[in-house]
Amino acid sequence: MGSSQIEGKRQVPAAASRSLKPEDLCRRCDPARFDFKTTDDLVDFVEALGQARAVDAIRFGMGIRRDGFNIFAMGPEGLGRHALVRKLLEQQAPGEQVPSDWCYVFNFETPHKPRALRLPPGRAAKFRQDMAHLVEDLRVGIPAAFETDEYRTRLAEIETEFNDRQAKAIGEIGERARSRRIALLRTPAGFGFAPMQKDKDEVLEPEEFRKLPEPDQHRMQEDIESLQEELERAVHEMPKWRREAQRKLRELNREVTSASVGSLMEEIKAEYEALPEVRAHLGAVQNDVLDHVEIFQQPKEGEQPTLFGIPLPRAESGESLLRRYEVNVLIERSADKGAPIIYEDNPSHDNLVGRIEHVAKMGTLVTDFTLIKAGALHRANGGYLVLDALKVLTQPFAWEALKRALRSREIRAESLGQMLSLVSTVSLEPEPIPLDLKVVLVGQRIFYYLLHAYDPEFGGLFKVVADFEDDMARDPDADSLYARVVATMARADKLRPLDRAAVARAIEHGARVAGDTEKLSMQMHDLADLLRESDHWAATAGRTVTAAEDVERAIRARQERVGRIRQRLQEEISRGTLLIDTVGERAGQVNGLSVATLGGFSFGMPHRITARVRLGGGKVIDIEREAELGGPIHSKGVLILSGYIAGRYAAKTPLSLAASLVFEQSYGGIEGDSASSAELYALLSALAEAPVRQALAVTGSVNQHGDVQAIGGVNEKIEGFFDVCASRGLTGEQGVLIPAANVKHLMLKHEVVEAVSAGKFHIYPVANVDEGIEILTGVPAGQRDALGQFSEGSINGRVEQRLAEFAERLRSFGRSTPERKLARGPKP
Amino acid sequence: MSIRRITVVQEPARGTRALDAVAEAAAALEAELLGLFLEDVELLHFAGLPFAREIGASARPRGLDVQTMERRLRSQAQEARRALAAAAEGKPVRWSFRVERGSVPAQLRKALGDADLVILLGDGESRRRSAALLSAAEFSSAVAPALERLARALAGDVYRVQLDADEEAIAKLLRELWRGAAGAEAERTGRK
Fold it and tell me: What is the pLDDT of residues A262-309, one digit of tens each?
């Protein structure tokens, strides 16, 4: 295939004369149409701009009080989803009922299952205080009851009864022993029997005993043995008597304290008359206090508690036992106005459902109901819980916990360690708390669709989707509303007011971000950042009002900050390392355009696309795909080219073409079909041997009929090529071919528009391949005449002729080598 | 009449607080405090018998010999001494401790002869035993309530105070003792 590089101008075909006018390249926002001077003259815009669908959905979700109608607010980052959700919730929540307070209290029947108590809003703290006062009063009242003479007398009675019983039993044995002249002695560790002297009440000394006649010794020993047996029986009975005395003591304690405990309890019960659950708990407290009055009698420091002189094991300290009468206020809403709105920024499992803490005691971890801590579900119960979907999904077990709570409509406080049996220590099973709340998940669309597809429970739990718009229609009113949004943001952020030209520039930027002259971006975070940055530059320039220059500077500075890679690539093109021609002509070589997005910044760059053709079996080889550098959409685009060429030029003859297509100097992979028209032009140029003007670059995808279709990133692509041309000096020949359908997306930077105005750069809208190839080669594409023949010398005619030649050569080549056919064997 | 010597007859592991109160009273009265531990010789005789058996809380008889009994009494005496030293520590009181072996009634009588005030510390059993032994020295009903109050002032763990004197002397002594104790209390709390 021949290729030539010819300097100089060519004749401009008719299609080229349709290059776009400057006004088509960027839809300006005319500051003159605004009737304000600065944004200070504008009133706040409190509605959600351009998000009517999402707003309706959220309002519907908030209003419908049915199971599973939780809300998923979806859309890309930066649209202000959280802010809008919060604003709508804040409008709704204050008018709703303040939900109940919740406490955990000791369960006297099953201590490891603390009871949950519901109290009217604001009463929980009072209940806790009342219980603390009650305990204080009991600590005074109960010991006072024990201080009375009556109690002391009756206690002495019990003690005396026990002692007397013991003494009587021992005494009787002692008496019987004495009658046999045997003494009952009290030893340091018990009792013993010893024979007495005949004439004195004194124990017989061992030597005297040995002097006695043996029969006497035997008799004494026998007597002692029988007395020992009696004593054994009596001592055996003593623990029983002691237990009996202890029981009597408990009864006495209960009796003497019941009056003072009863009167204190009645006072507090009266306050909670209307709350049966609280009353039931108070009843249980009363019984427990009466059963454990001893814990209100604090033994003095360092002294071993005793009962009838018998040391008792030191029990748990009274203070820790008194904890059982405390109230753990989980949720307290005395300061709340309306339903709560909770945003949990760290939705871990424990932060959602609450946790049970432990304290180290004597080397072990222990817990009780006072260590149960509320989670976000507790705090939001009766109101709204806003969560970031990604955060919930990335926290271990948080998503499952959230679903479980919503499904069962109750909150089960349980630490993750406990749930996974990682903590093997004393633990609790708190009574679940009924759950009634609305969850708003905020996340990207992909999460919604993935959850819908892969989590069977998701659809049933999040029935309301609030789909946020990425952009809004830029009708005449929209600019004014956008201006008010700018004013509102500036005021909210305490920024300088913006003059109307600055607002107009911000609006143009909004359209550029949307990539559409007829749309405005809803990326509110991006807008807010632009305003802040503009304010900074206004401050640097010493202005009190932000001007259009400041906004422009902010946009440029932002591009400059992230533009290192773009600059490096352009530098390599200028230095000739990356081969891009912007003058001259060459067959089979076209400047394609691509867009790279790195760290949220997109920029366009030209790429050299080349095609080589030869005789072959009808296959167009996509070198990118062969080298596994091309993505599937790119491959699809190339396969479409084969369909177009075969259908248009070789409908009646075999397509005897072998072609190869490549993105030169591309090492990082290619995806997308936006270069398919450029690839087709390169192929047609190679087949027709028609040189292509290198001053032009091309973007657009193509279908099998040769229609050029819209692509994305058109502005970046044009500007990418423009920058390369501008750096080399604009010749007036240079320009870009874009799909006609993309004209409405043009929001080009000022330099491009100015160059076009000056006739130094051109943008050609192209609807089909014929239009494009004419502009690129300066040769008419050619139409089929009445005989079905393309006009001679036209691009299409030359392509068809070349393909016919290939077919003919293939046929003659096949005839000249029959032995080869035979060698392959006969075809069926 | 003033009290120059108080003898406290100790039983180990009993009445630490009472001992403390007695030491405090002795300090307040500027009296000498003597701790007396009595080793009952009858227990040693009993332990020397070939068939001596002891029955404790387990209700099972266990063998006993003189060495064991000696050891036990010695350790009890040491314990009693330690308790007295702890009670007297930090108080301006002169104190001494003595172990006497012999017949308990005889030793008690001797103690009563040597001291102005004898305080028996112990549980109900020792109280009963001592009371029975010293029936001749039982105080009259007239002074009993005052003794009770004294006992309470001495922390409520003192079971019996024995005074070897006639009724008139007892009453006088108690009045002085009471005033002394009350004065000491007032001084301690800063009230006059």
Answer: 988 998 999 999 999 999 999 999 999 988 888 887 654 445 555 444
Residue A176 to chain B, least CA–CA distance (Å): 17
- Any idea which residues of A carry the catalytic annotation? 674, 717
The dihedral region occupied by A8, where left means phi > 0, alpha psi between -120 and 50, and beta the remainder, is left
Maximum alpha-carbon separation in chain A: 164
Q: Is residue A411 part of a domain?
A: yes
pLDDT, tens digit (0-9, with 9 covering 90-100), for A653-663: 888 888 899 99
- Whole-prediction pTM: 0.69
DSSP per residue, A227-277: HHHHHHHHHHHHHHHHHHHHHHHHHHHHHHHHHHHHHHHHHHHHHTTT-HH
Query: What is the domain range of residue A517?
Result: 37-48+471-562
Contacts of A300 (CB under 8 A, 6+ apart): none
Distance CA A132, CA A632 (A): 72
Contacts of B53 in chain A (CB under 8 A): 192-193, 224, 228
- B78 min Cα distance to partner chain A (Å): 14
Taking the alpha carbons at both ends of chain A, their separation in whole angstroms is 37
Q: Where are the domains of chain B?
A: 5-40+78-189
Contacts of A165 (CB under 8 A, 6+ apart): A241
CATH number of B5-40+78-189: 3.40.50
| Distance of alpha carbon A423 from alpha carbon A419, whole angstroms | 9
Q: Which has the closest alpha carbon to A83: A489, A390, A463, A477? A: A489
Q: What distance in Å separates residue A147's CA from the closest CA in chain B?
A: 14
Q: Tell me if chain A has a CB within 8 Å of the CB of B59.
A: yes
Inter-chain contact A205–B45, Cβ cutoff 8 Å?
yes
pLDDT digits (tens, 9 = 90+) for A716-754: 999 999 999 999 999 999 999 999 999 999 999 999 999
Given CB atoms, is B77 within the 8 Å cutoff of chain A? no
**pLDDT tens string B95-104:** 999 999 988 7
pLDDT at A49: 80
pLDDT at A325: 93
ipTM given for this complex: 0.72
B contacts of A309 (beta carbons < 8 Å): 123
In this prediction, residue A132 carries a pLDDT of: 93
- Whether residue A618 lies inside any domain: the answer is yes
Determine whether the interchain pair B123/A209 forms a contact, defined as Cβ–Cβ distance below 8 Å: no
Structural tokens at position B32: 């000498």
Report how many domains make up chain A. Answer: 4
